[in-house]
Each structure stands twice: as C-alpha cells, then as structure tokens.
C-alpha cells in the first residue's frame, strides 16, 4: 500500500512540474516596433533560447549578444535605406524559422547650408597637393575604426538615455548638407549650439574608447555602451576623460567648443551601431528594453 501511495505521489509531482518546465523553456521573440523610420534602431530580443539564434534584416546578419535568459540584437536603419517593407528573418536552435515584416518609413530630413573659408574646406575635401591633411585624415580614420570595433558583448547602458548638453539644435540628423553651395553629405548626428565651455555629459553608462584631437571633428570622445551601440561627442574645447575609463550617465566628460571643422561653438552628437548613424533624438528619455513590447507570433 505504501509503495502504491509513493507511486501516486510521484505521478502527481511529475504532472504538476511538467507544464512549469515547458513554460520556463518556452521561446519568445520580441521587437521594439514593426514600424520604423529611417535613422531608427530595430531591437530584437529572443528569450528562453540557450543557443544564439541566427537572423538577418536589410541584408545584414543580426549580431545576437547574450542577455539575461536569452539574446538581444540591435540593428540600425540608415537614412539611406529606401522606405518600404523588409523581412526580419530568425532561425532558432530547434530549427524553427520566424519571419516578420518590418515597415521602414521616410524620415523628415531638411537641408543644411554652410559657407566656410577655403582653409576650412580643405579639411573636408583636400586636393592631392594637401598631402599632410590626407595622411592625417587617414590616420584619424584608423583610430576611429579601432574605437568602433571594441564594443562589449553585452549592454552597459542603464535605463533611459539623456541629452548630452543644454543648447539650441542648429542642424538635425540626416540633413542634406551643402558646403559653399556644393553637395557634401548627409549630417550624421545632431548639432547642439551653446557657449564655449558648456558642460558635455555622457548620455549613458559606458567605456571611453577614444578621447583625443582629430583633424576634422576636433577634440572627440567615443563611448561604447555595449552590444554594438556607441555615442560620440565632437568639437569639444576640453576633454575631461581618458581612453579606457568607465563613465556614468550624466558624468561631465568634456566642454563644448569649436575645434576641428566647425563654424561656431557647438556639440556634434552621434549615436551609431556598426557603420550606421542613428537619429540621436530617439534615445533621449528612452529605455530600450522598455520598448520591447511587440511579440512576434
């Protein structure tokens, strides 16, 4: 009789614990939004998956990084991406394939016109005779490339991002820029103008990957926020942090200035994932993980 009771208890325990194990092991895929705008970031989270999933979006492989009980991936949508509907494709370790359509909408990009001296113009478009400038720009590109290839494989940021400086926005993200009447490029970030010496704050926690004077962007700081996300701060009058230093959100890292290719005191603020420049405005007051509210069926 005692053996029968024990057997019955074991059956009951197995029956009760079975569904719990299934829930714990279930896989859930979320994105921050299926409607994106040029310059925004698509965030994908796969929970309950022990092995890194594989996925693609906009012809690029998703770089999944371990986070909590699963994986996350951030992918930037460039201002060059044509508006339209694109498939997000993910393959899980159990072989299941998931596809979700993501709609990319056109951003509201204006024009920006600058008039500068010939000496300043050389910094952007040097002639073949300006060998010193060409060599310096090549060196700077290598330093920048090195800085943007050191991201920690997990998020370092903590909660919502903040604006890096007080001031007036003079040039928005994605503006088509003309210099001395000639088409130059798209504006990669956000320009905030204020007096020389205005404090510059880290937009979130991270590690300083670069803090030095560059030819075009002047005194420049690049901060790694982990999982491939970076912020950069250019044209500073002073650098108050060093390469390799851990910084906290709201920490003063420098002071506003007009160094490098600049027509007046301002901060050129950039947010970037991989080789894609993002609209910095979307990060202000935003906790990326709180935005993950669309579950892909």
Automatic annotation (TrEMBL):
Annotated ranges, domain M23ase beta-sheet core: 186-280
InterPro entries: Cell_wall_metabolism_enzyme, Dup_hybrid_motif, M23ase_b-sheet_dom
Gene Ontology terms, MF aspect: metalloendopeptidase activity
Superkingdom as given in the UniProt entry: Bacteria
SUPFAM superfamilies per UniProt: Duplicated hybrid motif
Protein known as: M23ase beta-sheet core domain-containing protein
């Amino acid at each position: 009789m005692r053996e029968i009771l024990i057997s019955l208890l074991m059956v009951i325990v197995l029956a009760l614990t079975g569904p719990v194990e299934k829930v714990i092991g279930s896989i859930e895929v979320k994105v921050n939004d299926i409607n994106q705008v040029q310059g925004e970031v698509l965030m994908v989270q796969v929970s309950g998956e022990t092995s890194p999933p594989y996925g693609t979006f906009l012809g690029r492989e998703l770089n999944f990084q371990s986070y909590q009980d699963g994986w996350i991936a951030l992918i930037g949508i460039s201002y060059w991406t044509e508006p339209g509907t694109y498939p997000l494709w993910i393959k899980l370790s159990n072989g299941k394939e998931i596809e979700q359509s993501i709609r990319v909408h056109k951003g509201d990009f204006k024009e920006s016109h600058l008039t500068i001296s010939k000496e300043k113009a050389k910094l952007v478009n040097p002639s073949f005779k300006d060998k010193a400038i060409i060599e310096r720009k090549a060196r700077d590109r290598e330093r920048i490339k090195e800085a943007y290839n050191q991201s920690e494989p997990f998020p370092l940021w903590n909660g919502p991002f903040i604006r890096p400086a007080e001031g007036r926005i003079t040039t928005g993200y994605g503006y088509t820029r003309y210099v001395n009447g000639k088409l130059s490029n798209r504006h990669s970030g956000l320009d905030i103008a204020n007096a020389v010496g205005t404090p510059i704050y880290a937009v979130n926690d991270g590690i300083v990957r670069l803090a030095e004077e560059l030819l075009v962007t002047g005194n420049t700081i690049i901060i790694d926020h982990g999982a491939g996300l970076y912020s950069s701060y250019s044209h500073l009058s002073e650098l108050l942090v060093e390469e390799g230093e851990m910084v906290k959100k709201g920490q003063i890292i420098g002071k506003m200035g007009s160094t490098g290719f600049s027509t007046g005191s301002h901060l050129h603020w950039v947010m970037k994932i991989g080789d894609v420049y993002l609209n910095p405005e979307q990060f202000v007051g935003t906790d990326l993980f709180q935005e993950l509210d669309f579950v892909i069926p």
